[in-house]
Structures are given as structure tokens and as C-alpha cells.
């Protein structure tokens, strides 16, 4: 495989594709290469939109890649847009890799369509947050796989997850790539196994595209770190065990199923997730020591998150009776509001008991706790604005209450967005560079598995 050629030929995409554009491109590829490409409708979304899967090649090993496992993460769909065509146009690439490829550009098509307001730009913190959508955990394709552990049981995978289960069970992939990406930060990776030969390949892929590593705090405090910015894949057992240490009823802190990696592990599947940011700051890989402990920064960050969610809860409380089940926007916010105190209590206990947090704080860790935390709370403000507007359009909500809540939510959004735009010196990562790191990381794992 000529990896340099594969990366060099990535187009300089300026926009993300809509679901309609993805579907049209998928059908066009099948028409152009009828002997190489098979397109199947593997199921329907909850909104009754077809979910298409491309099958390309006839190698001995099976690889399954799916984009938009969270619908605000279309980078993977763009990678598959390019990679699917490259597999068809380059016989040497396809044959040297030795796989049969199963590719779904967007598994959460309904949610992806609710993000399309920012797909065509401008790509800024404010525009992204204003048009952002992410479903609550119980409605995420990635996190509603069946799960039973101790006092918790989840048995209701959503239709999109059922599609993933069907393909995983049918093809039993040696390699699975759930195509996520982060909103703000740097590059980091999750893998099923500790494979040290991969780490430098991942790092080099990021360096070649001038994307910093995310050396701040991990997404979840309880993940296992194999190497800087490289972590073990996690599932709901890990979440349960964490909450069991810091909460009397851990089963009440989980509200979804488990992950695709957890489900596919019964087939010995190796899973990769490469998290790449839309926005980054060089502070995210800075090891400069600041005059505070890591614990001080983490506690301040958690208190900021808690206070923001408390404020949002107070704004949404008067209109909550009108935030109906068919309104997709408030669900993840309201879940965070309802679990706000318990989440903070668990986090603060963890920071207090873990000696790692007594060490001096690096600039990367402070940036993660104090700035990126505020970025993610901005997304909740944006969802709240969209939730109230949806209620005003689709329910008989009291106009005075709705207007007051909308004004408060919009003011909170505008204030925080302006602060972040002014206070954070950030850059936008070109789509081409995101694809390059994600694709090169995937090829490293594909070749590792092919050698087995």
C-alpha cells in the first residue's frame, strides 16, 4: 500500500456533506463500479430514513467502519466519502489491504440532519454551538447496545443500534472503526488492546498534519491510559464500577446501554476510535507548569460545569412541561441537570482521593479543565435555545413563559460564546487534515491486524 499517495490524494474539502449528499454519492459510486460495490439498505432510522451500507472488495478479513456514531461528528463520513472511492479507483490499495470493507457513512442519519446547520460553515465555536445537536445517551447508536451488569440492565437497542448489531453479528469483523471526533482539544485514540507499536504511528499521523496531541484530562477520569493520548476502549462496566465507588446507587447514574466495542468483543474484534478536534489550541499539548495543582484546576472546572448546568436547569424549569418527548433538543441537557449534583459529588470525591491530582498542573490540564469545559457547556446552552424554539413551534406553550425562557437562554448563550471567542486563541482544523489523521490511524491498525 502506498500510504503517502493515499494521504496526498485527499481532496481539500471545504464543507461537510449532508445526508442527502452522502446518499447520492453512495449510489453514484455503486453505479460507477458495479463489479466492486454493493449497496444494501440495512434498516431504517427512527425517522424512517434508509441506512445504507457499502460493501467493497473481497478480502479474507472483514472490516466495518461507520460514521456519525454521534451525529455532531461528520468527519468520519467525510473520511469514508474519500476512502470508499479510493478503494474503487486503486486496485493495488484494495488488494494489498486484504479486507472486505463494510462502510456506513452515517449511522445516525436523523441526528446528522439536525446538525446540518453548521456543515456548510462558517466553522466557528459560535456557529457550531448554535447549530449543534447530540442525542441523549438512551438514543445514541453508539451507546444502546444490550448490557447487563450487577444491578443494571439495558435491553432496548434503538433501530440504528440494531443495524450495527446485525452487521457485526453477520460479518464478525476483525477490525471495527467507530468514526468519532472531538469538538475541541487535540488528537487522542482509543483501542481495544495495548499495542505499543501503534502509538508512534498515531503520533506521526497527527504531527504530519500539525495537529497537537490532547495531553489534558481524559474524557472520563476512570479510563486506562496505555500511553500519552492513547487509551483503552471503555464500556458501561467501567462507568458502573466508577460510580459504585463514589455513589450509593451506581445503577441510577447510567441511563443507556454499552458500546459497539463492548458488543463486538465477543468476536475478538479489534476496535479503534480516533478522536480529532474541529478546534484546537496549542495549549492542549503544553507541559508548562502552572502555579496550581491539578486538583485545583479540576475542581474549578467541575464547579464551573455544575454552576452552568444549575443555571440552565433554573431557566428550563418553568417551560419543562412543554418540552415533550418528540422534542429532541433538551433531553441530554435535562439529564445532565437532573444528575448534576450527583455527578459533581462523584467527581470531587475522585479528585480528592486520587493522588495524581496533587501534582503540579500542566498548562494542557488547566486548559482542558478551565476553557474546554466552558466550550462544552456552551453546547448545552445552544441545545436549550433550540429546545425552547421547538416547543414554541410545536406545542401550546405559554407565550410569556416561553419568551422569558428563550431570552434568558439566548442571553446566556451569547454571553458565553462571546467570552470564548475573545478569550480562547483557537484554530480551525481543515477537513482534509482531519481525514488524513483518521485514515492513517485506521490504516496502521488495519495492517497490524492483517499481519496476524
**Strand arrangement, major sheet:** 1-2-4-3-7-12-9-11-10
Distance between the termini: 17 Å
Mean pLDDT value: 97
Helix proportion range: 40-55%
Strand proportion, as a percent range, falls in 15-25%
Low-confidence stretches: none
Principal-axis shape equals globular
Radius of gyration, in Å, reads 22 Å
Let me know the number of strands. 16
Number of helices in the DSSP assignment: 16
Assign the structural class, choosing from mainly alpha, mainly beta, alpha/beta, alpha+beta, or little secondary structure: alpha/beta
- Main pleated-sheet profile: 9 strands, mixed
Give a short overview:
With 452 residues, the chain is of the alpha/beta class. The protein is 48% helix and 16% strand.
What would you say this structure looks like, in words?
The protein has 16 helices and 16 strands. The chain is α/β, with parallel strands linked by helices and 452 residues long. A nine-stranded mixed β-sheet has the order 1-2-4-3-7-12-9-11-10, sandwiched between helices. The protein has a three-stranded mixed β-sheet with strand order 8-13-16. Strands 5-6 form a two-stranded antiparallel sheet. Strand 5 and strand 6 form a beta hairpin. Helix 14 packs antiparallel against helix 15. The radius of gyration is 22 Å and the shape is globular. The two termini are 17 Å apart.
Amino acid at each position: 500500500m502506498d500510504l503517502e499517495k493515499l494521504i496526498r490524494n485527499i481532496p481539500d474539502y471545504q464543507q461537510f456533506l449532508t445526508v442527502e449528499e452522502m446518499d447520492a454519492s453512495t449510489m453514484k459510486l455503486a453505479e460507477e463500479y458495479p463489479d466492486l460495490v454493493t449497496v444494501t439498505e440495512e434498516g431504517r432510522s427512527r425517522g424512517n430514513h434508509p441506512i445504507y451500507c457499502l460493501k467493497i472488495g473481497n478480502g479474507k478479513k472483514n472490516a466495518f467502519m461507520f460514521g456519525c456514531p454521534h451525529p455532531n461528528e461528520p468527519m468520519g463520513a467525510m473520511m469514508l466519502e474519500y476512502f470508499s472511492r479510493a478503494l474503487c479507483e486503486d486496485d493495488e490499495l484494495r488488494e494489498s489491504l486484504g479486507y472486505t470493507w463494510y462502510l456506513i457513512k452515517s449511522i445516525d442519519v436523523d441526528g446528522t440532519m439536525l446538525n446540518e446547520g453548521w456543515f456548510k460553515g462558517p466553522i466557528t465555536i459560535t456557529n457550531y454551538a448554535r447549530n449543534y445537536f447530540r442525542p441523549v445517551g438512551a438514543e445514541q447508536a453508539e451507546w444502546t447496545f444490550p448490557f447487563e451488569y450487577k444491578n443494571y440492565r439495558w435491553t432496548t437497542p434503538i433501530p440504528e443500534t440494531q443495524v450495527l448489531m446485525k452487521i457485526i453479528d453477520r460479518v464478525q469483523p476483525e477490525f471495527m472503526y467507530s468514526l468519532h471526533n472531538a469538538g475541541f482539544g487535540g488528537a487522542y485514540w482509543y483501542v481495544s488492546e495495548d499495542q505499543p507499536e501503534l502509538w508512534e504511528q498515531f503520533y506521526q499521523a497527527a504531527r504530519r498534519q500539525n495537529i497537537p496531541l490532547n495531553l489534558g484530562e481524559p474524557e472520563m477520569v476512570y479510563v486506562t491510559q496505555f500511553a500519552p493520548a492513547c487509551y483503552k476502549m471503555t464500556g458501561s462496566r467501567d462507568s458502573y464500577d466508577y460510580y459504585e465507588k463514589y455513589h450509593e446507587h451506581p445503577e441510577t447514574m447510567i441511563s443507556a446501554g454499552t458500546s459497539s466495542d463492548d458488543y463486538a468483543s465477543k468476536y475478538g474484534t479489534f476496535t479503534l476510535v480516533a478522536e480529532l478536534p474541529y478546534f484546537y489550541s496549542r495549549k492542549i499539548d503544553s507541559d508548562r507548569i502552572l502555579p496550581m495543582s491539578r486538583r485545583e484546576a479540576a475542581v474549578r472546572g467541575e464547579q464551573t460545569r455544575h454552576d452552568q448546568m444549575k443555571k440552565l436547569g433554573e431557566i428550563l424549569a418553568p417551560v419543562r412541561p412543554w418540552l415533550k418527548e418528540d422534542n429532541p433538543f433538551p433531553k441530554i441537557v435535562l439529564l445532565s441537570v437532573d444528575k448534576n449534583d450527583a455527578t459533581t459529588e462523584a467527581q470531587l470525591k475522585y479528585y480528592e482521593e486520587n493522588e495524581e491530582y496533587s501534582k503540579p498542573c500542566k498548562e494542557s490540564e488547566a486548559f482542558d479543565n478551565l476553557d474546554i469545559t466552558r466550550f462544552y457547556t456552551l453546547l448545552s446552552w445552544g441545545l436549550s435555545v433550540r429546545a425552547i424554539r421547538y416547543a414554541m413551534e410545536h406545542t401550546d406553550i405559554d407565550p410569556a413563559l416561553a419568551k422569558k425562557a428563550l431570552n434568558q437562554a439566548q442571553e446566556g448563550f451569547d454571553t458565553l460564546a462571546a467570552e470564548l471567542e475573545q478569550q480562547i486563541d483557537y484554530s480551525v482544523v481543515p477537513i482534509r487534515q482531519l481525514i488524513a489523521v483518521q485514515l492513517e490511524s485506521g490504516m496502521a491498525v488495519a495492517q497490524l491486524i492483517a499481519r496476524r
